[in-house]
Design goal:
Blueprint lengths: L15 H10 L2 E6 L6 E6 L1 E4 L5 E9 L3 H8 L2 E13 L1 H4 L7 E16 L3 H13 L14 H6 L2 E16 L6 H10 L3 H9 L5
Antiparallel strand pairs: 1-2, 1-5, 3-4, 4-7, 5-6, 6-7
Length: 205
């Protein structure tokens, strides 16, 4: 059986696992709301929820009730969420070529979402975030260690779910380079995260 050809532009060829790796590795995202004009925006840490096939279906987060974005999304729940992964300036020095133009490598995912605030979700939104960020530490911190301050904090924030309604991405990570230039960049670029993602998108080259 003939292999199906991916007709997407080169830098837009990615799968659900790539999206998950970026969301989990770089959870601080721009959340923009307020309708088509996106009048408000805030950086918020978000945790992904995935279906049985590993596809991102929603994001869980929280924000201050006093944040203008809270009011904007209550008025119009449509949001654009922007995740930015590793990025690096790539010089001709890294490529080992003076006849090669410098470029910037990056990874990004843009998500359309419908946001629903839920007071009952507030504690859960904190727990899933802290569990994710404290995982693997020698002595993971827990919410209970806040003591009485925790109750007061809960009154000032609110949890939400952002149901994914659309998703696009761009992973510009050296896929268009010839083999020799790619290997030179991988060996010289000082940004370890960018190198790791370049290797991810250039397996077998």
């Amino acid at each position: 059986m003939a292999e199906t050809r991916d007709e997407r532009p080169l830098f837009e060829r990615f799968d659900a696992a790539d999206v998950r790796a970026l969301v989990e590795g770089y959870p601080l995202a721009w959340v923009c709301g307020g309708g088509a004009g996106a009048t408000e925006a805030s950086l918020l840490p978000l945790i992904g929820v995935y279906d049985g096939e590993g596809r991102l279906i929603e994001l869980i987060g929280h924000l201050m009730r006093s944040n203008p974005l809270h009011h904007a999304l209550r008025e119009d729940p449509r949001a654009t969420i922007l995740f930015s992964g590793p990025d690096a300036y790539v010089s001709p020095e890294h490529a080992g070529r003076r006849d090669w133009a410098p470029t910037w490598n990056y990874a990004q995912v843009k998500i359309g979402a419908e946001v629903a605030f839920d007071e009952a979700l507030t504690e859960t939104s904190l727990k899933v975030l802290i569990d994710a960020m404290e995982a693997g530490r020698a002595a993971p911190w827990s919410i209970g260690e806040l003591g009485p301050r925790y109750t007061g904090m809960l009154t000032r924030i609110i949890g939400f779910r952002a149901r994914v309604t659309g998703l696009s991405g761009k992973f510009k990570l050296g896929q268009d380079e010839d083999g020799a230039t790619l290997r030179a960049i991988l060996g010289a670029l000082p940004d370890a995260d960018s190198v790791a993602w370049m290797k991810r998108f250039n397996r077998g080259r």
